[in-house]
């Protein structure tokens, strides 16, 4: 895995090789080709909304350690020169000791089912060229090259079928670091004969895609990755093979050239605004896709549910990765979080399965909203201490409001105050991680989705929702470690004439506290002004890492919609990155 970047980004370069392969060839946005695609293919993706990704391969036994040194970053890239730079012959030799003796296909499939996931996509071959199934066209595979001598993909496909789960393969179609002619692979064969990409494609790639689409039963998805410079004719040929051998299977957008059936966002990316069409987000349970021995930064059940629901609320499917260890087992902390989140999903399946995007088109200060079967489900992550949940912008009339608790419901009282709806809640949340309020409406849903400052929680306004003048909004992308991507919408290209405006809805007049989240180099003066003429100005220092700093109080004289305008009248503007402005009621 490595992130496939959208068009509008700022990238911090890892290496020239990595940049050339992954960052210099942006893929156009994918959309479902037409309604027929959704009918014939993608049932699990479009309805299930939640899936398991599995990165498991020869790299798993190394666990980010080579010759006594630990390499920090995504484990499946350990061979690459940006990590350990392991020579081809030395890497291939490690297969002689690869014996994941504890792998149990039924247990892995059961983990996905317990987690509430509806299908599994697993690495048939990653960039290292090692096949995790019994390939007949190349001996560098788990049956022929290791003491394991079993085909775990056959076992897993059968286990998924038994448990009612969909099954799919990841396949690295462009990069192959060990086969002559593959992208970033050797340029000559073992006899010194020159090899081209055509040789790799026809001798290995195409035959292996034929194998995985013919020999493992019904396939839900073939997940190609990092198309890079693959010729379009070959990408098209692969798509045709998949659709011919597996008429019900989807092809991921990362096959390249807009030939896929759906869009895949960047690695570890959850969008802040709704995305149209059929798409998925892919994420990790810790910081790496493949197993890394040191990586214990596991997502909690609450974090998993937050990212899952946010992805569904933006209109997508969430595919969450696990990386089995050298023995073939998913680490226990990941299992615990997945199963705990799955227990919550079992209590509130209507929030996940067949759920549709939020009509607000963005998250709300206390949580998020999904729609399902004519109802709205408010997922409350931050329970209001005041006992009132404020829902902004709902213009439809409410027929009923209920607090759902483990299969039971409690009627809630509610009242309209302009475009705000006040829903009365119990003093304490019924759920530990996220509670659910169900709204039934009278007629269709109509929403004013203006960003609204919650009377209790305030509002953290991302640059995503701003309108710059003489500046630019774009997503900044950078690696915390090799391949561990972070995403931050931000305003850049500042000058003396740059201004940035947000529109917000204020429920009640009064004083509000303003904070700025930014990065840069050196001090700058922030000036913030409302459409009523109130202003606040302060000088703060910034650093390369984003952090939040106080600016001061500002007043709103009237309730309703207002604009906030931010400028930098003095100081270091050139490298300023403004990520967000936070507005909190001052008490």
Q: Count the strands?
A: 31
| Structural class by sheet pairing and helices | alpha/beta
CATH class call of the largest domain? Alpha Beta
Question: Mind describing the biggest β-sheet?
Answer: 8 strands, parallel
- For the biggest β-sheet, the strand order reads 8-7-6-5-2-11-10-9
Q: End-to-end distance, in Å?
A: 47 Å
CATH architecture of the largest domain: Alpha-Beta Barrel
Report the uncertain regions: 3-39
Proportion of helical residues: 10-25%
**Quick one: overall form?**
globular
| CATH-defined topology of the largest domain | TIM Barrel
- Can you tell me the CATH superfamily of the largest domain? Glycosidases
What is the rounded Rg?
Answer: 25 Å
């Amino acid at each position: 895995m490595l992130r496939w970047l959208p068009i509008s980004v700022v990238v911090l370069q890892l290496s020239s090789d990595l940049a050339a392969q992954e960052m210099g060839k942006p893929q156009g946005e994918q959309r479902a080709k037409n309604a027929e695609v959704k009918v014939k293919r993608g049932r699990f993706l479009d309805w299930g909304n939640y899936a398991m990704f599995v990165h498991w391969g020869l790299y798993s036994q190394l666990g980010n350690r080579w010759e006594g040194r630990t390499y920090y970053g995504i484990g499946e890239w350990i061979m690459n020169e940006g990590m350990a730079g392991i020579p081809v012959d030395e890497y291939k030799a490690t297969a002689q000791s690869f014996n994941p003796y504890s792998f149990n296909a039924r247990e892995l499939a059961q983990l996905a089912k317990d987690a509430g996931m509806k299908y599994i996509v697993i690495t048939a071959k990653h960039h290292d060229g090692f096949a995790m199934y019994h390939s007949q066209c190349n001996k560098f595979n788990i049956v022929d090259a290791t003491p394991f001598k079993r085909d775990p993909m056959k076992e897993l496909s059968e286990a998924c079928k038994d448990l009612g789960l969909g099954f799919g393969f990841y396949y690295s179609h462009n990069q192959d670091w060990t086969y002559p002619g593959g992208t970033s692979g050797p340029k000559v064969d073992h006899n010194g004969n020159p090899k081209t990409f055509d040789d790799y494609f026809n001798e290995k790639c195409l035959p292996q895609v034929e194998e995985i689409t013919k020999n493992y039963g019904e396939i839900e998805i073939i997940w190609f990755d990092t198309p890079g410079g693959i010729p379009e004719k070959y990408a098209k040929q692969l798509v045709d093979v998949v659709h011919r051998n597996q008429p019900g299977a989807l092809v991921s957008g990362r096959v390249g050239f807009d030939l896929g059936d759906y869009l895949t966002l960047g690695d570890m990316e959850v969008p802040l605004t709704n995305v149209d069409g059929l798409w998925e987000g892919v994420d990790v349970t810790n910081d790496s896709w493949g197993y890394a021995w040191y990586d214990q930064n596991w997502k909690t059940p609450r974090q998993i549910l937050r990212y899952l629901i946010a992805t569904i609320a933006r209109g997508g499917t969430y595919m969450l990765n696990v990386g089995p260890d050298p023995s073939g087992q998913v680490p226990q902390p990941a299992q615990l979080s997945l199963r705990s989140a799955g227990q919550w999903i079992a209590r509130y399946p209507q929030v996940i399965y067949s759920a549709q995007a939020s009509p607000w088109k963005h998250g709300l200060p206390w949580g998020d909203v999904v729609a399902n079967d004519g109802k709205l489900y408010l997922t409350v992550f931050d329970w209001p201490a005041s006992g009132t949940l404020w829902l902004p912008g709902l213009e439809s009339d409410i027929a009923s409001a209920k607090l759902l608790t483990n299969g039971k419901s409690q009627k809630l009282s509610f009242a309209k105050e302009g475009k705000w709806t006040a829903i009365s809640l119990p003093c304490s949340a019924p759920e530990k991680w996220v509670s659910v309020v169900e709204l039934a409406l009278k007629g269709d849903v109509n929403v004013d989705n203006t960003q609204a400052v919650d009377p209790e929680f305030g509002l953290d306004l991302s640059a995503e929702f701003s309108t710059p003048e003489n500046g630019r909004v774009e997503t900044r992308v950078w690696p915390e470690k090799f391949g561990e991507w972070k995403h931050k919408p931000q305003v850049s290209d500042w000058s003396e004439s740059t201004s940035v405006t947000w529109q917000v809805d204020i429920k009640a007049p009064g004083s509000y506290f303003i904070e700025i989240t930014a990065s840069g180099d050196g001090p700058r003066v922030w000036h913030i002004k409302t459409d009523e003429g109130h202003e606040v100005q302060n000088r703060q220092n910034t650093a390369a890492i984003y952090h939040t700093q106080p600016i001061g109080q500002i007043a709103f004289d009237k309730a309703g919609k207002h604009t906030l305008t931010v400028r930098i009248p003095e100081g270091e503007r050139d490298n300023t990155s403004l990520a967000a402005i936070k507005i909190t009621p001052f008490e």
